[in-house]
Amino acid sequence: MFSGIVSGLGSIKSIKDKNDIVSIEIKAPKNFSKKLQKGASVSVDGVCLTAKKANSDNIKLFIEETLSRSTLGNFVKGQKVNLERSITSSSEIGGHLMSGHIHGVAKILDISAKESSIDMKISIPKGKSKYILEKGYIGINGCSLTVGKVNKSSFNIHLIPETLEVTNLAVLEKKQFINLELDQNTVSIVDTVERVLNR
Which residues lie closer than 8 Å to 122 by C-beta, 6 or more apart? Predict the structure, then answer.
């Protein structure tokens, strides 16, 4: 599990595809991989990946999530990615609980840059609109964010300076694709209510 509070930015060093197993090597921020155990979970742009091994500078991870469900298949060498270690029982949860299991890919429809913040309009993947509510939580590239205005096929988010400083959201561009994780509590409630009403 993750909190959606990004620890820092990593840089992709290599991507290898061998016998249907994809692995990536990432240059991590200082001390990020300290005491990272083999088999531990790491969130990379919101996708939960398994650590193969780590040293003080680099981490190697297996990609287990289906590439077609996330933006991982579009990763390129040198790309900046959001990183977060899995939470522990003593972790401060500043965002909301996230699993790192991506529900789909969304497209950035519009970006409005202000003096020190950015507003984004993001498409809603087919069949997911009932789970996205104004003032609710959403995970974008591993960042826990609050949903703004919601329309039939899109929603808005507001990015504050602190988020822009620590994550790769500041360099996203219009028409670019992002990883989307829905709030699992909202999904559970909506699906339960629908089942009860359809009995």
Answer: 106, 107, 108, 109, 140, 154, 155, 156, 157, 178, 180
